[in-house]
Amino acid sequence: MQTLQLLLLFAVPGFITLTIYRRFVASEPLDASKAGLDVVTYSFINYGFMSAPIYLYFKLAPADPWPGIPAIGIFILLFIAPCFLGYGLYRFESASFFNVNPIKKPWDYLFSQGRQYWVIVELDGGQRVGGIYGSGSFSSSYPSDEQIYLEQEWELDGRIFVKAVDRSEGIIISGANIKRIEFYN
Questions:
Q1: How far apart are CA 15 and CA 36, in angstroms?
Q2: Which of 13, 52, 63, 130 is deepest in the core (most CB within 10 A)?
Q3: Which domains does the chain have, with CATH numbers?
């Protein structure tokens, strides 16, 4: 029983923090054997941020509180606060004063913005493919190999989009074949 309590206290908050953070930043899959120190560290950071509310609870709590209050407090401490810490860590790292973005690749940064573009993709062999990257399009994200799905393919004349390819339901292009991508409003 004591092992389970230690696991709850020192692993669960950090694991939740890392999981939430990784929802916003594409990352390698979490390797539990290597993440142990990170998990414990984030658990302690969580307790650090929650130390003032914990102190105030014990300082101001009535001698005989409603029985559910401590359980609610423990739930917030172990499960809710780490969610806010993970999101807050992402926002803190994303702040412009750091001049660093936690997103690992420009590919992920551009496509995570949710904008729509006219796109010209130049392939390794020199062939050019045009299309619409819109709300029905998709791109892979790190750590997966780059792929892009354009929801509609268009015929090109140089850099001019001439007309939609008849009955086009889109095109998937492997990043391994892409030399460059041009984006237009």
A1: 9
A2: 13
A3: 2-98 (no CATH), 106-184 (2.30.30.100)
